[in-house]
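Most newcomers find our protein records easier to grasp once they have seen one. There is nothing in a record beyond a sequence line and a structure line. Getting from the letters to the tokens is the skill we practise here. An example says more than a description, so a record of this kind follows:
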Amino acid sequence: MARVFVITGPSGVGKGTLIRGLVARVPELELSVSATTRPPRPGERDGVDYHFLTDEEFERRIRAGEFVEHADYSGRRYGTLRSELEQRTSAGVPVVLEIEVQGARLVRAALPDAVQIFIMPPSREALRERLVGRGTDSEDDIARRLAVAERELMAQDEFAYKVLNDRQTEAVDELESIVRRELTHSLSR
């Protein structure tokens, strides 16, 4: 089985941007496409950015045992479809999961060998600025996300690796170093 890399941290910390940089540098990695009940943001495509599901379809898939993990986050549901992981890992392809802390904990329980990486913001104010700067969330959504972020930041010591996303290039350098080290380690087993 190929390695699974869980990259987590609070909403707005820049997980997606860092992962895009990581995948560009480590092309053998593939990003697992998560499922969500939130509506698509401008430019997002179903099956590429997320699997956009209705609440009813998401619930049906939970009952059918189709998720490795799923969680409610800021009023929406998110999850990792088992088929997304199994298709890649059984073919020997290392996979990156971009998920929230709640989901990362569930993956840790289901896949204890997964490499868990927590992305930290340089400050709480920087996190707020990033959420506001995206221009995709209402003030209520931003307030909810920041409240959740406070709890998530307290969980960072649960994770094997922590990467500070202060300077994007340096953060991607650090992520790449971790991933390459873990991929090399898994080959030597």
Summary: The chain has seven helices and nine strands.
